Amino acid sequence: MPARAAYSMIVSSPTAGLVGGEGTSTWNLSPPECGRYDLETRTTLRLDYQLQVEFRSERLVSSEQEASGTWSFRTSSQDFGQEGDVAEGSASRSPDGIRVRLDAPETEEIELASTISPVGLRSLLVDRAIAGERFVETEVYDARIQAEERLAAAALILPWDGSRRHAEDDPAVPMPRPGLKGLRRWVVYQDLFEEHADGDGRPISTSSFVLYENGVADDISIVLPEGIVHGRLTRLDLPEAPRCGRDRPPAGSRN
C-alpha cells in the first residue's frame, strides 16, 4: 500500500558519552504507475555528546519494476555535513539469483544468490505475520548497509499485547490517520547480519517496531553503538493506489 510517513526521533537510552539527541525520519512509498514502486527514505539525527555535537543523515532512493524484476537504487550518508559513503546502481533477476551492477563507489558487477529488496522484506514480514508465523529468516540486499554483498535478516514476530504504545493509542498525539484504526498489528524484532559473519556473530543492524497489516511501522527503536534511538509516527498519508487489479508484492520481494 502506498504511504508517506514521518517520524520524530529521540535518543531514549543514552550512554555515558552520549547525553541526548533528536531527529526526523521519513518513509515514502508510492506506485506512480501499475507495476512500479518508488521508495525514498531519509533519516537525520543530531547526537549530543558531553563535549561535541554530531549530525548524521542517510538517504535511500529506489525504484522497482515488477514485470522485469529489476530495481535501481542510490544511497548516501553524511557526517558533520560532509558527504560520506555513496552507493548507486541496479539489481535484476538472473537464473541463479540476483545480478547487481554498481556504478558507485566504483563500477562493479556482483552475482548474489536469491535475495529480496528492503521493500520486499517489509512485505514478507506482513505476509508471515498474517499467516501466524513467528520467526522469519531470509536474505536481503540493502545497499544502505552493505553495497557489495547481501545480508542475512532474522526477525521475531510477536502479537501486539498493548505493552508498546503508539500514536493511535496516545491521546496526546493528534489522529490524522484513520487508515490505521482497527488494523491488525504485531511487534517485530529484526536483526541484519553480514552474510559471511564470523567471530561473535553480532548483528550490524538491530531494530524493533510495531508493524501494521498495511505495512506501516510505528514505535521504532534503532540500536546504535552509542545508544537507542526511538521513533514515533507523527504524520501519515495513505494516498490512493493505481487501480491495477489484484495487489502484488514489489519485484524484489519474491526473488
Helix content: under 10%
User: What string gives the helices and strands in order?
Assistant: EEEEEEEEHEEEEEE
Question: What structural category characterises the helix and strand content?
Answer: mainly beta
Distance between the termini: 20 Å
Coarse shape:
globular
Adjacency order of strands in the biggest sheet: 8-7-6-5-4-3-2-1-14-13-12-11-10-9
Count of distinct strands: 14
Biggest β-sheet, characterized?
14 strands, antiparallel
Low-confidence runs of at least 5 consecutive residues: 171-176, 246-255
Radius of gyration: 18 Å
SS field, number of helical segments:
1
Question: Average pLDDT, to the nearest integer?
Answer: 82
How much strand?
Answer: over 45%
Report the oligomer: single chain
Describe this protein's structure.
With 255 residues, this protein is mainly beta. It has one helix and 14 strands. The chain has a 14-stranded antiparallel sheet with strand order 8-7-6-5-4-3-2-1-14-13-12-11-10-9, covered by helices on one side. The longest helix is centred in the middle third of the chain and has 13 residues. The radius of gyration is 18 Å and the shape is globular. The C terminus is likely disordered.
